Amino acid sequence: MLRFHGDAEIAPGLVDLAVNVRQETPPSWLTGPIAASLAHLARYPDPAEATAAIAARHGRPPSEVLLTAGAAQAFTLLGPALRPRRPVVVHPQFTEPEAALRTAGHDVTRAVLSEAHGFVLKNLEISPEADLLVIGNPTNPTSVLHPAEDLAALTRDGRVTVVDEAFADTVPGEPESLAGRRDLPGLLVIRSLTKTWGLAGLRIGYVLGPAELIERLREHAPLWSVSTPALAAAIACASPRAVDMEREIATRLAADRAHLVAALERAGVAVAGRPASSFVLIKVPGGESVRAALRERGFAVRRGETFPGLGPDWLRIAVRDTATSDAFVAVLSDVLGGSTC
Ligand SMILES: Cc1ncc(COP(=O)(O)O)c(C=O)c1O
């Protein structure tokens, strides 16, 4: 079940609370360059300009950036390029990194964060022999934001530490991001332009890290894997204007999330940890039948049991506008009231 994702939950007519991609149409300063790039499709894509733009956005040289066809493609490069002997994945988290490592023939050890501690890094034991460590921040599906210093403490010589920051731009100002950190040994940061900018169908993400590691990943990346329209999007999203707008979107999102969490808590629903991203994780008794009842009533939510460390009583809910959240919590309360009678 590692290859199950939220898009499998959605169906025509259902309100999509299962996929954590912002649903608003991207702004015209973004769709314009994407559309204009279609005039140049006869040429093979040249990533130089977009690589330089992303590098400047994070204060790094271009040699420390590899553009990929979404963050998902970056995960597939880790095994072949790094050939780890002891890869460890911190769960619960997005399952593709582990799936990709297994596909590449690696045995993966899981380090599972505990519900009792709110899925934070407290008491996390990582074997000193782990030569590849993968962790998400903020983490899908728990929405937990780990402190940058706790993540920095996991890095060491002889280990590649991969921080999946696909959702980093959902946190205003990105205080815990390691994207600009060049002092930590073996640190790779993976980013995505999918979530905030509503570009899941375009496939654009990138990896940041020491030039030597980036070069190893590049050697294993498929030729021309990032298309010309995706490169145009990367350039547009790296501009100071885009970064400002990202912050505004994240700030509005935080208010919408607070509204959702308050409504869930008023309804007596347990919310995991201190959510910091564009989704929240809840625990409800009889999760499987609750999810089915929600579907009957028009809402698709993401099941929890395909995430190592979670079970069927966990459901992940995307943060949407307050009216959608209110409508959802009203239906959920009804369903839970009905299921306990
Ligand atoms: C935590 C996390 N990382 C990475 C991805 C993949 O992102 P992309 O669309 O850039 O491949 C996802 C997609 O759901 C995700 O949840």
Written description of the protein model:
Belongs to the class-I pyridoxal-phosphate-dependent aminotransferase family. There is one protein chain. A hairpin with a 7-residue loop joins strand 9 (270-271) and strand 10. The strands form 2 sheets. The protein has a 7-stranded mixed beta sheet, sandwiched between helices. By secondary structure, the protein is α/β, with parallel strands linked by helices. It is globular, with a radius of gyration of 20 Å. Helix 3 (70-82) crosses helix 7. The chain contains 11 helices and 12 strands. The chain is 37% helix and 16% strand. It has helices at 28-37, 48-57, 70-82, 96-103, 148-152, 194-197, 211-220, 228-237, 240-266, 287-296, 322-340, and strands at residues 15-17, 65-68, 87-91, 109-112, 132-136, 160-164, 187-192, 205-208, 270-271, 279-283, 299-303, 314-318. The structure holds pyridoxal-5'-phosphate. Residues 70-72, 94, 136, 140, 164, 166, 192, 194, 200, 205 line the site of pyridoxal-5'-phosphate (PLP). Pyridoxal-5'-phosphate (PLP) binds at residues 70-72, 94, 136, 140, 164, 166, 192, 194, 200, 205.
Write out key terms for the chains shown:
341 residues, binds pyridoxal-5'-phosphate, 12 strands, alpha/beta
